[in-house]
Specification:
Chains A, B, C, D: GO terms for molecular function: malonyl-CoA decarboxylase activity. Four copies of one chain form a homotetramer. The first copy, chain A, has 20 helices and seven strands. Chain A has 451 residues and is an alpha+beta fold. Chain A folds into three domains: 5-163, Up-down Bundle (Butyryl-CoA Dehydrogenase, subunit A, domain 3); 167-301, Aminopeptidase, CATH 3.40.630.180; 308-447, 3-Layer(aba) Sandwich (Aminopeptidase), CATH 3.40.630. In chain A, helix 5 (85-98) runs antiparallel to helix 6 and helix 7 packs across helix 9. Chain A is globular. The first copy, chain A, starts with a helix and ends with a helix. Chains in contact: A-B, A-C, B-D, C-D. Chain A binds chain C through residues 2, 176-181, 183, 197-198, 202, 206, 255, and chain C through 2, 176-181, 183, 197-198, 202, 206, 255.
Chain lengths: 451, 451, 451, 451
């Protein structure tokens, strides 16, 4: 009765649709073929009166497909929604003759996969953007086993890079006055250090020395894209547990702090993988904090070292590792080693140097650091500043990084230079302390001397 | 002193810049060559740390260029920021061999003009989106005389179609509680019936029987993209002057109205020409109004007929026009004819039929109606409903349309069909009254009989 | 450094204060005498430049007093901040001579207790209103044992009735999009059916068939004054447990519901006892719901019956109770009786009639119903509609009301009449079903026949 | 059809009302007697179910009364809604016997004029607060000629002082982004220097060196209570015309200013006369500005001197005025004197000293400065800092103050002391320059020497 105009139009279309179905003996649950048909109809519509309704219909169908039907739909997208080879050949012929902008535009249009126009039109539907992000999430899960779907992903990535341009993102502060529905999502999406419940969240957010900021996109409403948690401290923090526990810090008022420590950065939307905002987020948050608290001097992370424990394990079997190192590392096998001060001290003398080596010298096949967190912050222009022994003694921290955490330091005047050196020469900016540690690792390796 | 982080980074870059300038003897006012250099630097940056600053710098330079320098800059954009022919040739070779998605993506990337990536990066700057829209405004002004710039415009259009996707637009109601800064823009942008001052605006907006809605884009803040003015009436209105004067209507409460009359639709951003939102705007406004006032029965425009007077003039010299018609039309040459009831009545008998013929039968080279307003509403699925004699007796109304105005009617159940018939067969949906008028025009032409 | 103007003024005053203290050998912890001094200073200030600072100082002192010092402070307020008897005598003499408005005003001013002006001035402090509400909370706790403080309470009540005038209250909807800090208060203040944690809250609020509204006062920000929880149902609900559990109702969309059931009304501020908003809240919420969901037909409560079990116990020893009734009621002593269908059925036949009698015929010394919840809703014009057997089988429900709950029905056309009959003649409006039950109770009493 | 609950209740009551009217032969236009009846009904209702409706009805009746009926209504209020003498006598008897808080409260209640309870109940109506403010506006207009209405005004004043307590006021910034409907009110209410139209307003508000703040009360929505206009300057301004014209100042960015000049303070609600917020407004605005622009050093007004010209005229006939002074002052009679530099200079030598004398030494019957603006700022703790020759050369400025304007300076550390000296001893804080001028005035008077 109170039905809206667009709903009515949608109903009109759906009714006709239902009619067609009945005539042609379609069953009521759509399958991938129905969706392919709906997509064709959307592409053939001339983008005006009915596109919104057609887009909504197609997305609603997708929603109802199960996993295998979705896979089949993607396969059809890959095969049938590419571009017209004949048209490309003609456009190329024209281009290679005149080599001007007009024919270039012609060629560009001819070889744009029809999927891109399809996605643009699906985006007309209300909430379309978010549904497309989730559609890509499905696709990414399939991609590993179905490399033939890579082409579709390239189309998503091309459009998302435009749609999620930093100029369209909005930074919002998250705190205890934020709507519960959004905080619930923060609890859900926290990826670095799990938030167990509302009390846990309150401990992290609702003190005068905490800040949290997230990026949002206007078309996907209250769904955060990425967020960062910050603790205001005196001096650079070296242990994560007191921060997570919300223990009384020595910072009574925000104005007392000299350091902003970024202790958790979480991407929220798997479907936006590869569309990077983390770098912009950190820098915009630094700006916000500077504005609020001009006395802040240090901007630093307290970051995990995922993959280090695995690498360390591999080293124990490696020829280059000295006997002394190997013996020392054996202590890691004994549960609870970190609670035994003597044992821990002995390990520290071997593990920190090896971590310095791991982070500064171990490279992947593109010549960049093996550790992904290091790649992220070094690429942003930060400096690898300090390796913190027993920085994270949670089960997860012990398991993935032998309890280590790292401070990456963002020094205003060095960011540009660090960044340029990193991208041009893969140079890892690090403090002299870290450099000395890495040197010590080499010595231990060579001479078998520890300490 | 309170300078922000990003400003500082910007200053760092600008200082280096200034240094370079001095070394190389540049003068302080940038020219198109400086800007081309800045654009290259932006494209070469790897999109991370310094891109925002570089983008801001380039846009600031553009801002300071004068008209001829801007033209030179566009010329360079056209010539030097297309795509790499060798890379295209290679990509095409690969594609023509395998014809798969991977090589198609390769070709698509190779032939995307570098301008597109440039514009995407300029868009990183704060307020970049709006500055790009204004840059295209400049370009459109030059395009007529410089057809070689058409390629750049295609790149703008391609990106803007993505960025200004309807899914990203926000509808807001405009009324007397709207911030003055925004109302000022409404006064400025009104294109159909000029708003003279604040009192004039108040008459149009601030009564219970008026509504105004605009589309906004989150990245360009308070700048409206397009807006529509609505009067709530009893019955379909046929004269614009009482509406503009805010004369007491017989609609005491909005709940009394049965008709929503769209009496002005104004595009605000020249730089977004061809990126169409008007259709979506009308339909979303219909939806809003239905929600607020479920009793509304008719959604109709009161639209101008630009170009009709000019066409009419040409008819007077045309062979097909009968002597009787010609004689009647001569009255139009006498100033003030519309205030003379007898003369006006005689004219009406000739002019309205000819207008019906003009609107329904005169076509452009694409086979669509000659009149642009008719094309817009018929394309949206509306029906050409009534031709109103002396509908607009302002100087402008008399001059451009012999005082005529037209009602286009949006009938929910017909929109789809009308639209499809129009796009498929260029069929003009019209009321029987208009059809009869057009028939009468033919008779008058043939037999020379008036009335 | 960034200290604000008013803070500086406050500091100036506090420094002078500190100086005075040191001179006069005061210790650093204020006692009631210090506070009395601060109150005098505030009353003697001429209400302009320094009043805000003086008010803040006095409230800060009060905050630091412990319970016994606060009691002493109230005692001093009672004794020393009344009115000047001589001035009253003179004003009365003048009044009794001329009996005009001028001398009446004089008398009124003379006998206004100075406490009222004191409280008005304390209210100048930022957050003063809320601190005064909490001050009265302390006072009410003391009042029972210290009847001499009743005078102060009258002053609070007089002012609060003005300040918390319904015209100043703001109704806000509470839902899952409400800031967490406010929801936390809702959890805290819920007085009828305890909310255990955030998941419990979510079940009550975050479904399409739930609503929650609260009154706020602009000067005390996010502290709710009173709130009501509503469930949208088909038909009048008779059991509270499914509602609290958020069990799937048969109301799929809010538009399906025909009934709004108020299942919890909680006053949040003890310090506002006696300042009644509950009546206005219910009526304004009815209005809001009608606006949103015009199809709603019934507005009803599902209310507890506190005190009934106690009364019932007393009846068992009362001569008027028949032997048969007494025997039946004995079953209530056996734990878990409500899970034994046979026993429960037997009890039902006795207990419901007695509840009807209790609610309609048992009166307090003002001739009004003994049950406070009944007094509230009957006073608002509702009708005692139905007595629900095993309506609340929680421990609390069994303990306070033998598991009974009551529906009070708000019938638009009867509210006025019910209300008038109630206030004029203490008439209890009730359904014929309840009336029949009460009659049956009398019969059972008289004849000893059950059923 | 969509009628709301409270409306329906209101209609119910009004229908009964209409019935009564017809029965008793009332005419349809209410007169003061009807309103008195409605007020009685409201007072007799027990404040619950129907009070809101009864209050709305009474206020709607008042709205429809013409001036003379309103006067009659006030007369009835004065006569019939005072207090019950017998009850007062009894309460006084009880009080004079026991002299305790209980009997004091009894007396206080007995002698509270029933008007106060009436106004509190009228305030239940939606928008009641604002309507009561306007009702007092009417009353104030009548009071001069009808001193017998003073008693009613005392009741209004008593309640308004509670309702408009500073703790309930909200400060909002007004600028070009403020809703037009509110800006329109600012144009309307500006009392010091008239705002002619929207362009004029824009010049005053919409530059980086302007600020405007207003106090609002939550219950009267968008109606401002008082507002102040501020110009940010370098140094203390001495002329108003450049400020009003929005002339380019030497303040390019707000951060460049060292002075905030308050150049217009306008009370908006005549009905709130005597309920003072100006003092709080100035101090809260100083605080806001300090927060935004910590570099500001001076807070000063540029104020008119209403009444000075009139006083000056009287002096010309006064014996104490020397012949030389008299001769000089004669130049004031010649129109355009301020445009003649020589004449103006001669006048300046006489008029400024006399102004200093007028402002510092001429007292009213309460021993306070004759000039109301001086009383206001001196009472707030400001210092009379400078007398500016030709500070306001508008017609109004010339007419009321011979073109003079005055700077009152708010010096943080002196405000308290100035204020205390002023209230205790009526001491006028002034700069040595002003003191010297006043001394010169005495000399000129005595010796007849000018200069």
């Amino acid at each position: 009765m109170n039905m809206t105009f667009l709903q009515e139009m949608f109903n009109n279309i759906t009714q006709r649709d239902a009619l067609l179905r009945r005539r042609h003996g379609y069953n009521t649950n759509p399958d991938h073929a129905d969706l392919v048909g709906a997509c064709r109809a959307l592409l053939e519509s001339d983008g005006e009166a009915s596109s919104i309704a057609l887009a909504s219909r197609a997305l609603a169908m997708y929603e109802r497909l199960d996993g295998s039907e979705r896979r089949r739909f993607f396969a059809r997208l890959a095969e049938e929604f590419a571009a017209d080879p004949t048209r490309i050949d003609q456009a190329y012929a024209a281009y290679s003759e005149s080599r001007d902008n007009a024919t270039l535009n012609g060629l560009f249009e001819a070889c744009e996969p029809r999927r891109q126009e399809l996605f643009r039109r699906l985006n007309l539907a209300s909430d379309g953007t978010y549904q497309l992000v989730r559609m890509r999430e499905d696709l990414l899960a399939l991609r590993r086993e179905h490399p033939e779907l890579a082409g579709i992903d390239a189309d998503f990535a091309h459009l998302f890079a435009s749609w999620f341009n930093r100029g369209f993102l909005m930074l919002k502060r998250i705190d205890w006055n934020t709507p519960a529905s959004l905080l619930e999502r923060i609890i859900h999406y926290e990826a670095v250090h799990e938030i167990h419940d509302w009390n846990d969240l309150r401990r992290r957010l609702d003190t005068r020395d905490r800040r949290c900021f997230a990026f949002f996109h206007p078309a996907i409403g209250d769904e955060p894209l990425i967020f960062v948690e910050v603790a205001l401290c005196k001096g650079l923090p070296d242990h994560i547990q007191p921060i997570l526990a919300g223990e009384d810090s020595d910072v009574e008022a925000p104005e007392d702090a000299d350091t902003a420590a970024f202790f958790g950065i979480s991407n929220c939307q798997t479907g936006l993988r590869g569309i990077s905002f983390g770098n912009f987020l950190i820098k915009q948050v630094v700006q916000e904090l500077k504005q609020e608290l001009p006395q802040l001097k240090h901007f630093v992370t307290l970051s995990p070292v995922p993959g280090f424990a695995q690498w360390l394990k591999a080293q124990r079997d490696d020829d280059s590792t000295s006997e002394a190192q190997r013996e020392a590392l054996a202590a890691l096998d004994e549960p609870g080693w970190h609670r035994d001060p003597e044992r821990a001290e002995a390990l520290k003398a071997v593990v920190r140097p090896m971590a310095a080596r791991y982070l500064t010298q171990e490279k992947n096949d593109r010549g960049l650091p093996l550790n992904p967190v290091a790649r992220f912050h070094l690429g942003n222009g930060a400096e690898l500043h300090r390796i913190n022994w027993l920085g994270d003694i949670s089960d997860k921290g012990l398991e993935q990084a032998a309890g280590l955490m790292v401070n990456y330091l963002y020094v205003l005047n060095d960011i540009e230079r660090n960044h340029e050196n990193y991208t041009a020469n893969a140079t890892v900016a690090c403090s002299s302390e870290v450099r000395d540690l890495a040197r010590k690792a080499r010595k231990q390796q060579a001479k078998g001397e520890l300490k």
